[in-house]
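Re: export button greyed out
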Amino acid sequence: MGLFASRRTRVVDSDVLIIGGGFGGCGAAYESRYWGRNLRIVVVEKANIERSGAVAHGLSAINCYMGMQWGENQPEDFVRYARGDLLGLVREDLLFDIARHVDATVHKFEEWGLPIMKDPKTGHYQREGRWQIMIHGESYKPIVAEAARKSATEIINRVMVTHLLMDRTKPNRVAGAVGFDVRDGTFYVFKAKAVIVTAGGASHIFRPRSIGEGAGRTWYSPWSTASAYSLLIQAGAKMIQMENRIVLTRFKDGYGPVGAWFLLLKTYATNAYGEKYEASRFDEIKGLVGKYAEIKPMPTCLRNHAMLQEMKAGKGPIYMHTQESLDTKEKEEIGWEDFLDMTIDQAVVWASQNIDPREKPSELIASEPYVMGSHATCSGAWASGPEDFAPSDYQWGYNRMTTVEGVFGAGDTIGGSAHKFSSGSFTEGRIAGKSAVRYISDIADSPPQTDDAEIEKLKDAIFKPLENYDVGRNEIVAGTVSPSYILPIHGLQRLEKIMDEYAGGVSTFYITNEPMLNRGLELIGMLREDLDHVGAESLHQLQRTWELNHRVWAAESVVRHTLFRQETRWPGYYYRGDHPKLNDDDWHVFASSQFDPKTGVWHMEKLPVHHLIS
Amino acid sequence: MPTFVYMTKCDGCGKCVDICPSDIMHIDPVYRRALNIEPNFCWECYSCVKECPQNAIDVRGYADFAPLGHSVRVLREPEKGMVSWKIRYRDGRLKEFAFPIRTTPWGSIKGPSMYDAPDQKAFSSQLLAHEPEALKVDSLPSLPSGEKKQV
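Workaround output, generated via the alternate export path:
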């Protein structure tokens, strides 16, 4: 025990513990309360659920809505779309499951007060594209948070969860979690019968294009710090698709969304010389990915690829011709609200650079890579599928339970189910919430027990960075350079540099290979050792320290997966220079990893991709 | 800085500290007013700007790529269900927009406990809360159990 032995501890007993109060977590809270009326349901969130998660500032569209009531789409159609976009590799059972429930979620959102735009002719929701509907979504998160507050027994804001706790009576079963209050430093011990991990995916594991103040303007929120992955990896959960990082084509620097422009306003993009480049690169793309080049609409990664090739050929900047489509006041309002609801900074960029989208085109760029499970990408945990139709090797008892007993997931946590977005993540949270309640009723006779020795050990580890700083700080006069510790920002910048230069970031045009990945792993190994020597000056910096820790775990997983998959599956997301083509004969499978917490060994294997929809 | 706080307007109430998703709005120990302690972790999400009762917080675009002289101001009025924006360009042009944010009174959502408790049959089925009614179709779709297809 060190300097902080007298630290206050709060023990929270719960039946269902929900880690992360974003859309997945709010859905899990609502549904677990609906089915578990007398259960103690606790949501723990490192920020404030009123404005937390990736939807903190709002959204301008709901990107996953079938419209079954009007016969617009059926769940099968959605599965085909998401499968095509991910070049064949998705969990079709999980996707179908989300699609069949998601309309009910959206109807609830509307009932709760979310303004959804209507098509004046049909009275149906206003479509942005085939799957998207337009909303006035500035308060999307506060509305959904209100529903969560009315569901949970307790919502604990400003507590960051650092580790899961395992059951001492049964191997591979969860018993709770630990963390700390980022305001007053209280050590939190959560005891739980079931844990639903609905934390965020990962921004800032690859070096962003903007590295000054603008480092905050990553496409995905800077507070999405890979907790969804690190909590599970360290508990020994099986993960899939961690190599399936996403690169986004967005308005340059502000990273404003392009969906409404491409889909609703029918805006088009060209290279600097006015040439539409996607069609002219079709044959070249077909040479890389074969039949997948013919998928309509063209998969997200392949559209990126076409743009990147133009830029490499010296034909940039790439322009979105907004001036061609904003011919009415109504369209201008749609274009601006698209940003003001969800990426306000893009409006700042236009105002600061004197760009009026009615008058001139705007630059597009491909972002730095991100790791997440809910957009046009699906990194995450290997999860049990729906009981009524998932193939036998896709289910082991409870829908959305991971390979660690009692740990469920939703949103960015669950792998293989791309294109969930906000509504699908909330829906997956609902699925996990009901499942967790069923699990709890089945284990009523043998609840998990936490291990006091494990808790004490974690307590020491969690607060050690404060001690590192207090002790090491006395060695130096002042400043940030110490021989005995690094600051969290130093560790983050090192991680971003390693990932950028060795694992397929922007500085190599997203290209990597086996020697680069092995060198990256070597450097990440040293960074992991250095994590024991991070110095935190304050509780805020202690939060940054644990966020860094979570990011490093996710990054190592990404590198190992990228190394394992010996093909270039998703050109435009990343390239294996030593295996430049898609190879369906050997790699029409999921790459899977499992970290063994006892031995520290990573086990890699292939898991089958089953097609359930023709 | 991305967000910054005007010295003469802030009264140190801490609402921005409470809402900031990135934990970067803190109270300065000397001036007892708010400040952004980590501009490079600011997403310009405007959560603090909207929350500030004194209109003391504003945004200056990221210095990496936003030239000076612009402003994007917001007024969020939850009780009116509206948000209004005023955008001033570097060259002085102005644009104004207003959008609805909610159609029902704040606090009016019916929590899950306010519905009748579901029965055992529903509990052991694949139905989620309020289904199938809330789907607005007759029944919850499913697939043949375990059947695999060639594609």
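The two ends of chain A are 60 Å apart (CA to CA). The button fix ships in the next patch.
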